[in-house]
Hints:
Layout: H1 8-19, H2 23-36, H3 40-60, H4 66-90, E1 102-107, H5 115-126, E2 130-133, H6 140-150, E3 154-158, H7 165-177, E4 182-185, H8 194-198, E5 203-205, H9 208-217, H10 231-258, H11 267-290, H12 294-309, H13 315-327, H14 332-345
Parallel strand pairs: 1-2, 1-3, 3-4, 4-5
Amino acid sequence: MSGTRITEAARAGFDACLAAADEDAAIELAVGLVASGVSAEDVLLRLVAPAQLKVGELWASGEWTVAQEHAATHVSSRTVDAVASAARATARPPAGSGARGRVLVACSDGEWHVLPSRILTEVLRLRGFDVRSLGGSVPPDGILSDVHRNGPDVVALSCTLPWNLPLAYRQIEICRWAGVPVIAGGSGFGPAGAWAYALGADLYAADARDAAEALLRRWPPVLRGESSVGADAVEAYAMLVRQRPGLLEYLASALRDVCPGLGGSSGTEQEEGTGFLGRLLDSLAAAVFVDDERVFTRHLAFVRTYLAARSVDSRCLLAMTDALADRLNGSPRALDKLSAGRRFLTGQEDGSGSRG
């Protein structure tokens, strides 16, 4: 593992550390790479981040339990801390360190996948930015309070779950009211950041390195303009939010009839079924909010794979979609997204939706 690049052996070794939840070995491996001359940024982005992505895939495929996923994520998080500490101890700060500007990093409201934001925080620090991080699921008033108190030049907002888009919109709007530009990042903001820009973000970055490069090229960022979320979309979304408790109850009843594997008698099974239905509704609501069917069809694609890995008949998704259409026949926007979902589930679309 010597030299200045990350070898396949190092990647395999780190994957094994995560699988065994071996925190000490993972840290030793990663910090050893930094000591051997591999940049801390590369260790974070080319070792830790891809390994954590595999962790998510192993959970989604049913190969790993939730407990295994949580344990591995903890190890990854501790490794990020150790790599950052090693970099600060062994490397000279970049020229102009601390003078490149102040960045506030936060996760979207409802977003608890904090590792991407932590990696972003450390990469930006390595690039010489002055960074504050607020962690997971930051409410809009929390961001506003910090903006007023500490005066960041830009807010970096992380979102991996598209159903949190309406909540992210509130955060972006409050930053805009305060005159602070927003750079958005994470898969939750859609392909090429399409939904980030729809919500009014000023920049989008696919990962931490792209974020650092974008900020270095366009510092300081400027406010781009208003979001494209219209009053009709907000009204349709609000209607779904108001109806959510009744819709959940209605779907839970339908779920027991068509998909008993997700509505079993144990507390865990019932909790899983309720969560499944809640995320289905929230994805539909988010698709209505940004007026893009891909938010819904991409979620259906994920859930179909998730259910298949657990030997649950994914046709229950079609039944759920049809049940929602029956109850929401007075909402054209919701029906439009549900129709797209039905086309996808019956093989008429590939899940990417009709928009390019």
